[in-house]
Amino acid sequence: MSTNGIKPPGGTNPEQPNAETDGTAREKKLCSRCQELDLSVDKFVIYDEIFRPPKGSFGPGRRADFSLKSGNGLFQLGTFSDIEQRSCNGCPLCILAVKSICQSTQCREALGPPVSDVLASLRERESICFVNWEIDGRDNDPISARKARTRRLHLHWNNKYVPDSYLVFVAPQRLFDFNSDSQGSWEREAFFLGRELRTNGNNQVLMKSWLDQCSDHHGPACIGYNDDEFLEMATQSYFGVIDTLDMCLKSLPLKPGKSPKKTDSNLRTTRGDVEIVRINRDRYGSSPSEVSIEEMEQDCDRDLYEPYVALSYVWGLKKNYTTDISNIRIHQQQGSLETFLDEIPKVIRDAMDLVRRLGLRYLWVDSLCIVQNSKRSWNLNARKMNIIYGNAHLTICAADGSDAWLGLKALDSSGHSTTQHIEECAPGVRLMASQLAETGINSSVWNTRAWTFQERLLSKRCLIFTEGRVFFQCRSATMSEDLVSESHGAGWSLDLAKALPQILHDLRRRPIRVYMNCMSRYSERQLTQAKDILAAFNGVSNLISDAMGAPFIFGLPSSHFDLALLWEPLSAVSRRVPGPDEDFGDFIFPTWSWCGWKGGSMSYHTYQLEGVFTCVHEWLTEHTWIAWYIRDGRGNLRPIWDGESQEIKACASVEDRWKGYKDVIPEPEFTKLQEQALINLGNPNEDDFIKWAKEQEIADKVAKPGEREMKARGNYYDEYPRHRERIREQRHHIVEDIGRGRARSASSGRQRDRDVDIYRDVNADIDESPTFLDEYGRKISSDIARRIRSGFQQCLPDNPFRVYIEPYTSTPDKDFPDQPLLQFWTWWASLRLSKSPSTPNSPSSSPPLPGLTKFDISDAVGDWCGSILLSSDWVSNQEKMGHKVDGSRRDFLAISDAKAFTREECDVWTYYVPKERESSEWELYYVLLVEMKERIWFRVALGKVFKQSFENAVGRKRWREIVLG
After folding, report:
1. Comparing C-alpha atoms, which of 372, 559, 578, 540 is closest to residue 456?
2. Residues 23, 98: contact at Cβ < 8 Å?
3. What span, in angstroms and rounded, lies between the C-alpha atoms of 547 and 281?
4. pTM for this one?
5. Which of 307, 308, 520, 820 is deepest in the core (most CB within 10 A)?
6. CA distance linking residue 675 with residue 788, whole number of Å
């Protein structure tokens, strides 16, 4: 086995077996199981009429007869114990399989169990290794139509502690003359194949070749623009960089002969005879083939300012040297940073050195370029992270170690990892065990930090240092030391497909999906300061907000607000509130946004959103109804969306089905109905909620004897039908009598809705009423259109005298940030919760999410009507306070229509609505389980229920004004 593939100076053949590298001197030969893979050169290197490598270039091993090269089946290589034994007997492929485990798990030891524990787990569980072929490298040549060039063997184990590995064909040794991926350094036959690493640790030329390949050939997706926002920021007093030659802080200088351009209020920049208007949006989501370099260069002058490099790293727990108010003047003096080199963390010193070695000069590092004890400097820079990282010529990502003091290991020959596992597995077939770049990156502490998520995602190009290796990633390619890149470095490969920046290619086509993907990945990251949850996401939200044409509100896009509310935790989470040593100031995070919770990741579950993703735009305009308002920093209400406003611009998604609300004027008929509804909004002389609670309390007392009788007889849900019908009738008459009393009362001065029979014939209630276009561009039923949606009575203690509604604005006041309070009208009802019985043998059951417990939702008479996942901690805390959850009555808010229950949510169809399951689409609500504190509601969890359950509820369906915090 070759550990690095290069002959050492003494001339020893690296292929010579030795006890240190292989543990045995016996002859290596494939075992009978591995022979069934029938390995040959042409299974790894794809030939066609155009590509025919020179005769003898790969040696023997090419087959003359036809054989299937790849398929969709899995090949079972065997259990770990069997593979380990066969590797000891000299099977080279089994040796690679075992070595790949050690290689991949060593990378993960910082975040996972040690290698010894993983190997023990593989033996104890008799874990099995599966193998399948995957097509890998593809040309970027338009003439070849991106034809596939190589294949890999994919190794994966049925053990969660072992990351996937690959066996890659190694390029012939005769091609290893240059340690560079520049155009012309490699013959085409070597593209996408394995490369044997040099042992001298000198990879500077290789890194420079990657950077040049991207800069010169990858087009607008990678080159980017000095857009108007960057041009504006570069002239501001808060933005500065490190001059790595003069070793001091200074503003980013213009290139020689360039002059700053004037910008008007519309941010239009004149450059020569060409006027550029916000072309920044187009740089994301474009592949190099969509827009040519010539077209881009006609539109934008990229050479106005000197290029700079940004650094992304982990601060760690050690004290780092920073710029503050006391030393900022000193740091601006030429040579001043030389004085403090011993105090500056090694990763910053290494980054300075690398910048110079790459032929660049300027470096942006947060700890030195932001005045750390200046709130103004910190806020101004934090709000521009998408501009700072998005316009950097290159971002250095320091993913080695857990703090800033380890440095960039791959720059040092003593820290540079050159170990490779290479075996000859068939004549002319030398294979190398390899992991995707993302395997090492995902195993780093750097990749767990919240701030580094946007720093990597927003960057055009990244040099990522991890586990003693260095990788290059841009929007068009991934390049590594042990794989040969395609001539222009823009060919497709599996490494590219798995890279984080690839999610931005969908930004123009479906930005809401990009948002959901980003939010889910970001929410699992960790923060030292919990209050930074939005600040560390600000660059990403700015980028997506530009694509959507609408602002974000506490991390949720306002153009798709109803959909953005439907997030759920993937594990137990807790409220994001200040800890014992934390100070959030006046800032409070809302429960209705994912940013208001911590301790686990959030996601938009595909199964929960069944029917929504089919056409998001249709769902938003046909299955939502709430007019959302938020309390601004002055205590006034502001609409989240208003199609009449001149500032509103509908989401510019390329695909119509991913668009959000419309920028339209509501129909006059709708406006008239709303004006009529507001006439009925009086000034009540008694708090509405208290009055309703009293009425329900009376109903509850009368019904409880019947409930106690049922519980005494056994299961609450298994009573005889006759007894259940008696309770149903009893509850119905109670509520009906109270309803007549409420209708006769005119003390509040408002018109009450007529009570409705809670068990009326559903088939007789088909709504054939007309619909009206509201300010969101939604089709609102006449029933909703006649109800109050935009008039409010409930005041806050800080603003006690009236409710004032401000006009819509897309630029909220940053000096007075919004309060975490939504105010709106929707349907409210009270339903019962009961812990769902576990059914492990059910075909639709799936592994439970950690820390979450499934609860059933039932109506007034105990009929199942929905389900919800609750945090086990919340349930426990409720019971500690004496509030039993199982069997309790809880408050629910309907927030939008749901299409159907999944089989996991509703395994058995009970005909709660008199229809077949397939015919019951859109008979459901998405609901929030809420709890009230000081007249403000707070989200607990998201669930689904039948709409009919709100009619049959313990506390019956009611149109209510809600303040949600």
Report:
1. 540
2. no
3. 6
4. 0.83
5. 308
6. 9
